[in-house]
Amino acid sequence: MRSSVDTVVIGGGQAGLAVGYYLAKEGRSCVILDANGRVGDAWRNRWDSLLLFTPARFNGLPGMRFPAARDKFITKDEMADYLEAYAERFQLPVRGGMKVERLSRNGSGFLISAGENRFHAENVVVAMGNCQAPRVPPFAMDLDPEIVQLHSKDYRNPSQLRDGATLIVGAGNSGADIAMEIVKTHPTMMAGKESGHIPFRIETFIARHLLVSIVRFLGHHLLTVRTPIGRKVRPMLLSKGTPLVRVKPKDLIAAGVERVGRVVGVRDGLPVLEDGRTVEVTNVIWCTGFLPGFSWIDLPILGDRQEPAHSRGLVPDLPGLYFVGLHFLYSATSETITGVWRDAKRIAKHVASREPSEKMSEDVLAGTQSA
Q1: 2-132+292-370 and 135-197+243-286: same fold?
Q2: Where are the domains of the chain?
Q3: CB 257 within 8 A of CB 180
Q4: How far apart are CA 124 and CA 105, in angstroms?
Q5: What's the CATH number of domain 2-132+292-370, 1.10.340.30, 2.30.30.240, 1.10.760.10, 3.50.50.60?
Q6: Between vectors from CA 32 to CA 309 and to CA 365, what angle results, nearest 5°?
Q7: Quick one: DSSP state of residue 255?
């Protein structure tokens, strides 16, 4: 199937929905393509016990507040259901089950390939985060095949694990949250060095009603590409893990989680730590982050790390191509539900300011005939 549209939005999560909302406000048509079968599945398919770090009052998208007590920490399923309700309320044109496999140039516009579907568009907004492809070290394949291996993307609950010791590789927020759950049923070790932690409990009254607001304000308004401090810390935030938010290092120790050094390889089918010690485990959960996963973009905009080159979401060398939802696209909140709307609004306004190309219809016809 071949379709011609003004704007294709790739990604139907919070970034894509916010873009679709603002494009509608600007009177511009679009289609939102999402690989998942159902709006909200990117949240729905995460581990069962996941809670958001921000109270509900910060978790709404433009035009629709989150339907919960303002200071409640919501579950990932509640977030997923909210996004689904949001798309329905504003009749956003989401097409599920559309995994984009190639984005390329088509004359003055773009060609988007998703299975047997082809879309020719004047504008394309890639509304996805930098974390698309699970990252696992190459030596993982050398582990004993009897060891259960899961990436945090595929972990749901402890029932997936074998009896016996579990090694969590990665000491960020995902690793800490999962370790606190697994240690209740399995001897648990956590490998790696954490990147600090925030110095207060987010569940307390003063944190819910004041401290979280202060942190959000700093991340949203102070840590931006327009401020000296924002430009200074941006490279560090892009290359390192974020500080622990809910779980503190002392919580892990109190719960019985054993902290160990980095995993550097495999010996006799078992993980080897940086001190040379071999650890006997029956389960390994890789909380080692993600790769950008933008290899399907067949355009000269990706650097050595497959990160797209852009200026606040605009690609200067390819007019009509935009990004929303990237980590620190403009500010420290750019990839979060609390901050993505600002970038989405700006990009939608920029799309609306572009006059449709006179050559677009000719290019679309030529591309259709050659497809």
Answers
A1: yes
A2: 2-132+292-370, 135-197+243-286
A3: yes
A4: 11
A5: 3.50.50.60
A6: 85
A7: H
What topology is assigned to 135-197+243-286 in CATH?
Answer: FAD/NAD(P)-binding domain (3.50.50)
Residue 284: closest CA among 192, 163, 161, 193: 161
State percent of the chain over pLDDT 70. Answer: 95
Straight-line distance from the first to the last Cα atom of the chain, in angstroms, rounded to the nearest whole number? 11
In tens, the pLDDT along 134-154 reads: 899 999 999 999 999 999 999
pLDDT cut 90: percent of the chain above it: 82
Residue-level pLDDT at 361: 46
Residue 262 one-letter amino acid: R
What per-residue confidence (pLDDT) applies to 236? 85
CB atoms within 10 A of CB 75: 16
Per the model's pLDDT, the better-predicted residue between 91 and 293 turns out to be 91
Residue 366's pLDDT is: 42
Q: What is the DSSP string of 275-297?
A: TS-B---SEEEE---EE---TTB
- Once rounded to an integer, what is the mean pLDDT over residues 84-111? 95
User: From residue 53, how far is each of 56, 68, 245, 262 by CA, in Å?
Assistant: 9, 15, 7, 27
Lookup: tokens for 58: 């910060």
Side-chain-side CA neighbours of 33 within 13 Å: the count stands at 23
Distances (CA, A) of 113 to 148, 298, 300: 35, 11, 17
DSSP code of 240?
S
Cβ atoms of 10 and 16 closer than 8 Å? yes
Q: Which amino acid is located at 102 in the chain? A: R
pLDDT in tens, 41-69: 999 999 999 999 999 999 999 999 999 99
